[in-house]
Structure formats: structure tokens, C-alpha cells
Amino acid sequence: MTGVPKNRRQRRRSKARRAPPIHKLGEDLLLEIFLRLPSLATLVRAALTCRAWRRAVASSPSFRRRFRALHPPPLLGLFFEAPGPVHTPNTPGFPTFVPARRRDRDLTAAVRGGDFFLTSLEDLPDEGPCWNMVDCCRGCVLLMNWDDGSLVVFNPLTRRIEDVFDLSPEDLFDGSRGHYAQVYPQLLFSDEDPASFRVVLLAHDERRIRAAVFSSDTWEWLLLPWVDVPASSGDDECWIKYERGMQANGFLYWVYEDQRYLVSLNTATMEFCVTELPHFLRDSSFHLGETKDGATCIVYSDQLNVGVLMPTRDDGMEKWVLDRVVPLDRELERVLRVGLANVTVPNQLVANHNDLSVLAVQDGYVYKRAIGVLADAAGPASG
């Protein structure tokens, strides 16, 4: 402290003693500070600093709603399922994670500090080594064990893993009129209690549907009654699409294989509803999600156009009506030619609408997949 007057040093020490430590801040003031953090990844890192900070974030649904409104959740990366042949007894099989390449240091640190390789699953007692990812919600993944049909909910970001529970008792769907089928279970989280979750399993026979709901509060399955629905036009006994359902604004959705009807389940009242879909969707790739403003929508691909449908009510009946169509041909060609500047991109890659499909719709963003064949002087290569 050479060169600093003694009285100035004393004033600095007195001021330092008067300043309260950060852990003495009131919870309201602490959350106001957290609200100004730049991203969800930053909030997670801050909340994990100590139990008091984590408790402050976890115990305030209103804070989490305000934070989500100001900071939409970022895309940390993508999970890819392991190829089918590895799902055999005693052969390890885990989904593969590919992080998004971002310059945000907090996002990068969040991915490095998490367990996106799912190594924590290996610590579960008496569980087989093969896992399949069946759903993802609020940063958590729902995984199913291929060997014994058990389920587990895991948060890769915080490394939090729930106890394993059975997919369903053997007699869960007794009472069907013969054949019945199950589709992938779906994961639900509560806005009020982030530690509470539900898993919904849909089953159907020839013309009826019902759901079983597992709750982390009771750790038991609840079976809902059978509900009659319109028959499918196809001969396939599994007439509801087997792949994962969709989720938006407190509703779960499933689609008929012939894409004539959309089944919805209100997760608050647990009531089913069946809506007829527009005829032009029956040959299209589409997905249901939310717009940037939070409204429920359907987004579909038609050649190189993207159409958006919004729900409306007519004479008390819910219908889906076309809101707008956005052409993607010029934008897709620009992106492909810029991203592949050193590769000859044939026009047929851009024109092949059969290789353009909608994967997901979240927070106003549409995630699409384009698969084609690139050809240059060296010969064909997949792209």
C-alpha cells in the first residue's frame, strides 16, 4: 500500500467491512441479479454454485417464467440414436451427442461440465447396458432400457438422475378387445415444480385409445379409461404412428398412420380430443409445435415450400387452417452453395422435395432435414 494515504486505506477497509457478503443478499434481490444473466447456461452455472442459490431458482416458478421469456433456451446439441444392431443383450448401446459449435463460453462450459455421454447410466444397479432415448423435455431426457423395458429420467446438464421405474405392469392394458399397441412414452414437466415429472404412455386397440400416466409424486402408474375414436382407413393394426408424439402448450399429440386425424390429450384435464386434418397433409411431412409468440401451429413441407397451419374453431369444432406458405428454394440454394463453396452442388439436390422433411417445431424455429447426393469430379458422396 505504499503511496496511499493512511486515512484513505482506512476508508477502503471500513467500506469493505460494511458491504454485505453476496450470500447475505435477500432471495428477491438475488433473483433480480440472476434475471440479468445472459443465458440459460449461465444461470445453470450460477445456480450450481451453492445450495442456497439452487434453492432460490428451483423454488420460484415466477422467476423461471420471467427468465424463459427473456432468454429462450439455446440449442446445446443433438442426440443421435445408436444403430439398431447394437441393441442386443450385453452389447452397450447409448445415444450419441454432437454439440452445437458456438462461441458462447458459457454454453461450451455447460456442455463440458455436463454428462452428455450418459456415463451416469452405467452407475445404475442391476440395469442392462442398452438404452434408447424416447423423449426429451425441459433439458431432460427419457431413456428406456432395451433389456428389461425400464425407464429413467436424466438431466445431462445438471447430472441429475431419477430412480429407475418399470415401463408398465404386465396387466396395465388388460381389457382390450384383442390386439393393442403401445407407442413411445412421452415426458412432461411441471412449471410449478421442476423436480416433478410425468410420463404418458398411449395404447390403442382397433378403435379405442387410452393412456397410462406415471407420476414422480406417487411413483405409480394411473390408468385412464378407454375412449372411442374414428377408425383408420388403413389395414395396419398399429394405426397410430409408432414414433414419438408431439407436445405443445400443455397438450400431447399423436397422428394416425394415414394422417387423417390428430389425437390430442389435455395434460391438465387428461381428456382426449380427435381432430380431422386437412387433406393436403396426408402426403406431407409435418410436425406440431409453437410459434415464437407461443401459439400452437402445424408446420409442413410441400416440395420446397414450408406451410404453417393455425387452429381455429368453427361451429364449436376445432379445425386447422392454412396461415401462410414460405418458399425455401432460393434460401436453401444459397445456404448449400455458401456452405459447400468448394463442391459442385447439382440442381437436383435443391429440387428433390422428397428429401426435405420437418423434424421439430420449437420456440418459433423449424428444424428440417435435407438428404441428397452430391456429385463432383471425384464421384458421388453422401451429403
From TrEMBL:
<dbReference type="InterPro" id="IPR036047">
    <property type="entry name" value="F-box-like_dom_sf"/>
</dbReference>
<feature type="domain" description="F-box">
    <location>
        <begin position="25"/>
        <end position="66"/>
    </location>
</feature>
<protein>
    <recommendedName>
        <fullName>F-box domain-containing protein</fullName>
    </recommendedName>
</protein>
<dbReference type="Pfam" id="PF12937">
    <property type="entry name" value="F-box-like"/>
</dbReference>
<dbReference type="InterPro" id="IPR001810">
    <property type="entry name" value="F-box_dom"/>
</dbReference>
